[in-house]
Write a sequence for this structure.
């Protein structure tokens, strides 16, 4: 699937003549193709709004998210607290912003690790080939065979959870799919003439992998990374529900949702739905963006 | 075909071996040591030495790994100090119950997801497609524990029709005896699985629709419904075989959360409890078993695929 697509894209690139106008026209084609997917634009806009809400919101809407205030617990929305307060008196709206920072940071950082490591791993395996490729890819197979929740629970039981370790843990299990996809593309790319040309010109293997191969798989890596952000945010929520998320004062949407769910029968809906909806909206947005990105980069799926 | 089978089996065996290697490495590089983890921080040096000698932890690492493999092959997965049971006995008790949960959820998900995916692919880019895509994304994006609680609130709290807890009981018979309690856990797992499967089915069908024989069929003037039934359905169903194998880790992940939420006494619940108290033998033993099952499942799927689709077989020659 990814293999054919790359063929066409590379051929198209090699066919056009002036190198500079080529890259800008490719860029323009991609933008135009992306614009064909209204849902992708919706996803991107939502993500931008969410980032603004979480990172710029606290500058406008000041709240204290460190010190519990037990004289104002479980207040319903209204008046001074647009979304009410939680069981220890934190302002829910302000907490949503702070928790969102963690969720987004963890998601983005884990996806960045996954993209960088998975991309390199896949490109190396595909480029070197032979038994190195076999060992590297069987390693990926072995890790992919373990369900992510099991792996996360296992690692979280081993390492004391903090925001940073959770990023490492989630990054450590998110790179596998990227590695597979990139390896598949590299296998095809390395047979292309321009790789042979680079080699004839005396380029070393490292240069070929970094300068030529990785650059051509960026589309795949980027769209896969978008999905990984969504997965990491969800996994972080699951981890918090299972009691192995980062401990307080760190807070994320999953943790808020879990705490709120303890009060589900008290009818304090404002402690459940805002956090839950933030997760759903953000994860959906990243998935929509990823889908649009994938269809943009996959020439074969384009509307003709 | 035989060569393909042989190579594929060798590959699967290598993967399982690698899993055991990782698990062994984790077991060995535990913070502290297995003795500390098992005997606690107050254990005397003598007790720790005795424990290490009894368990062979004083031997060289390669020997330890060989011994570990030997034990694995004899079905000895270690001893759970939290449940006070051999891990294999725990597994024998839990596995059928998780199998039941996952099996029913798989069957229902396929029944729902296949038609949805085909409809979406045929109507690709239409409002129908966009609507279903959005619904599927929301289902996929919803933390499964929240979905489960919403279902509990609806069916148990609001309408009093279903119990909020999964069936209790040590044996699979006890679980089957309480089918009403099984509904909500199965429903939760099914919803999150359908969201994934329908996406997969949609792209599989789109792949099929891009084929030349579909264009030929269209050019001949074949109606859409006829084309879907005669050509698209059969060819799009093939990747489902792969999907069943590939999605296994995803569904097991869902089962862990569902079991923890509904207090359903299966493998996921035991794994979760073991993670709370760092009962490593259970964590690692279950990991090896589930990974081996996944690899075996993928192997079966590949073989079934080659058996069902001659193109795969002949292409390999």
């Amino acid at each position: 699937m990814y293999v054919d697509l790359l063929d066409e894209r590379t051929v198209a690139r090699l066919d056009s003549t002036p190198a500079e106008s080529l890259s800008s026209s490719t860029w323009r084609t991609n933008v135009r193709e992306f614009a064909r997917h209204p849902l992708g634009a919706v996803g991107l806009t939502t993500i931008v709004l969410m980032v603004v809400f979480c990172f710029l919101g606290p500058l406008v809407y000041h709240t204290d998210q460190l010190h519990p205030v037990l004289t104002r617990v479980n207040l319903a929305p209204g008046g001074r607290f647009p979304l009410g307060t939680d069981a220890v008196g934190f302002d829910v709206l302000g907490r949503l912003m702070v928790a969102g920072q963690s969720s987004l940071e963890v998601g983005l950082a884990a996806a960045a690790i996954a993209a960088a490591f998975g991309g390199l791993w896949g490109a190396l395996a595909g480029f070197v080939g032979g038994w190195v490729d076999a060992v590297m890819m069987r390693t990926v197979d072995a890790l992919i065979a373990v369900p992510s929740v099991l792996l996360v629970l296992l690692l979280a039981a081993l390492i004391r959870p903090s925001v940073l370790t959770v990023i490492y843990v989630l990054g450590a299990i998110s790179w596998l799919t990227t590695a597979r996809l990139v390896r598949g593309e590299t296998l095809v790319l390395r047979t292309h003439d321009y790789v042979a040309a680079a080699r004839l010109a005396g380029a070393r293997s490292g240069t070929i992998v970094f300068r030529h191969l990785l650059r051509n798989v960026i589309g795949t890596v980027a769209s896969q990374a978008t999905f990984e952000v969504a997965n990491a945010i969800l996994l972080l929520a699951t981890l918090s529900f299972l009691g192995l998320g980062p401990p307080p004062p760190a807070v994320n949407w999953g943790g808020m949702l879990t705490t709120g769910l303890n009060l589900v029968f008290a009818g304090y809906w404002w402690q459940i739905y805002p956090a839950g909806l933030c997760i759903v909206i953000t994860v959906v947005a990243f998935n929509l963006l990823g889908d649009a990105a994938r269809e943009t980069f996959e020439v074969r799926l384009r509307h003709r | 075909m035989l060569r393909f089978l042989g190579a594929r089996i060798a590959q699967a065996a290598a993967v399982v071996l690698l899993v055991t290697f990782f698990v062994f490495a984790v077991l060995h590089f535990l913070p502290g040591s297995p003795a500390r983890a098992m005997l606690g921080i107050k254990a005397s040096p003598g007790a720790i030495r005795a424990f290490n000698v009894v368990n062979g932890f004083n031997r060289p690492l390669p020997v330890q790994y060989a011994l570990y493999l030997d034990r694995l092959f004899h079905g000895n997965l270690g001893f759970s100090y939290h449940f006070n049971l051999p891990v294999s006995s725990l597994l024998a008790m839990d596995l059928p119950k998780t199998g039941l949960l996952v099996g029913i959820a798989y069957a229902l998900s396929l029944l729902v997801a296949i038609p949805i995916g085909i409809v979406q692919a045929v109507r690709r880019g239409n409002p129908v497609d966009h609507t279903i895509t959005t619904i599927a994304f929301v289902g996929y994006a919803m933390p499964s524990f929240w979905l489960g609680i919403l279902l509990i609130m609806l069916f148990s709290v609001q309408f009093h029709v279903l119990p909020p807890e999964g069936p209790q009981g040590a044996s699979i018979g006890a679980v089957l005896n309480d089918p009403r309690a099984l509904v909500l856990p199965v429903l939760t797992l099914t919803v999150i699985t359908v969201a994934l499967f329908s996406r997969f089915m949609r792209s599989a069908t789109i792949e099929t629709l891009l084929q030349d024989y579909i264009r030929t069929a269209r050019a001949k003037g074949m109606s859409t419904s006829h084309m879907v039934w005669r050509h698209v359905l059969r060819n799009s169903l093939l990747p489902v075989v792969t999907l069943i194998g590939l999605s296994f880790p995803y569904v097991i992940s869902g089962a862990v959360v569902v079991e923890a939420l509904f207090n359903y006494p299966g493998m996921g619940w035991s794994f979760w409890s073991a993670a709370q108290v760092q009962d490593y033998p259970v964590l690692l033993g279950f990991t090896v078993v589930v990974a081996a099952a996944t690899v075996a499942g993928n192997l079966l799927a590949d073989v079934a695929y080659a058996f069902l689709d001659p193109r795969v077989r002949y292409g390999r020659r």
